[in-house]
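Summary for the lay section of the report: proteins are chains of building blocks that fold into shapes. Here we show the chain for Site-specific integrase and then a coded description of the shape we predicted for it.
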Amino acid sequence: MTTLKLAVVPAKMLKSGKHKIRIAIGHKQETRYLVTRFNIDDLSQFKDGQVIGIPNASYVNMKLRSILNSYQEALDRISTQSYTCAQVVEYLSNIKQGAAPFSSASTDYIINMEKEGRKSTAELYRRTCRYFNDFIKLDVMLDGITPRTIKEFDVYLKNEKNLNPVTRGTHMAHLKAILNQAVRDKKVSYDTHPFEYYEKPEGNIRELDISVDEVKQIRDSTPKEKSLRMARDLFMLSYYLGGINLIDLMQFNFKNRDTIEYIREKSKNTKKGDKKISFSIPEEAKPIIKEWMGKNGKLNFGYKYTYDNFRKFVTKEIKRLAENIGIESHVVYYSARKSFVQHGFELGISLETLEYCIGQSMKKNRPIFNYVKIMRKHADIAIRKILDGLK
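The coded shape description reads as follows.
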């Protein structure tokens, strides 16, 4: 059990002869101290945890009690059993009076995403927050989140939620985005950012690209089931449109458009989030768009799923389509993106152009858009060359 009380340490008298009032933290038979901003001139002015004999004693005692209560509330939000006394002190030293709770920051962040029309992404962030709340148990204050919190949350996602490195990295990126926005909004400040020492887990490289002939098989398939036709067309649209991700494809308004121009959902709210991908819609994509486009200009397949459930449904149906037409490779929606890049690279298309088309760096730690500015015509030429390879 961790105990807190107000104390004065006679041996630590200041050069001026005054004494700092401290918070004594008792944990696992060890006592450490946190210093408050309040001083007394003489030891006789402190008795039984109270300041006495000074004109503003009641005010000082009220402030000290408030500090003590905030520290106690912070302790109530965590289990200190696995902490050393030094770690408890480190945790409490990050607590600032009047700080906002994590729930407030995360709710504001998600509401803003929904106002921007990014409801599907907002739902993914909600899942991250549910995981974090399950881990932390109670509503932690923003300034109570430390590098240790982040490290232990990552371990929790791995061991308790059984998430793979890529999925864990995604949830950690969501959490970091929420904290960064809270810092920008002046809801919290950190001497050491909670993610200062975090290293994104390395996922296994997924070999999901398929051959040109296998892409042709998918394109030329004639399934009778609506769900399989949908799977075929979504896969081919991604391939035709530069490996566009499903969430970006489903949000795009195709009405009266000959070009596609968008910012990747994954890149929004990042330092490079204002960079747009733009190229002409190739002729191969137009019949598919026309068949499935709803009145609002967006693709509409008639299913009433949430985005997350729709994505899972698409993944299942693409896999089933591939099996039905005899493709032995592991095929998912993402295979269209991987294959687009692989086929383009094999045709000698520059890496910079491919990076522009898909909006993602192909080399670890190398940011996109830092080299040459790839204009739409370069992307059009590249896409045309790749699609001609299917003829």
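Put simply, here is one thing we learned. Residues 102-184 form a domain with the DNA polymerase; domain 1 fold (CATH 1.10.150).
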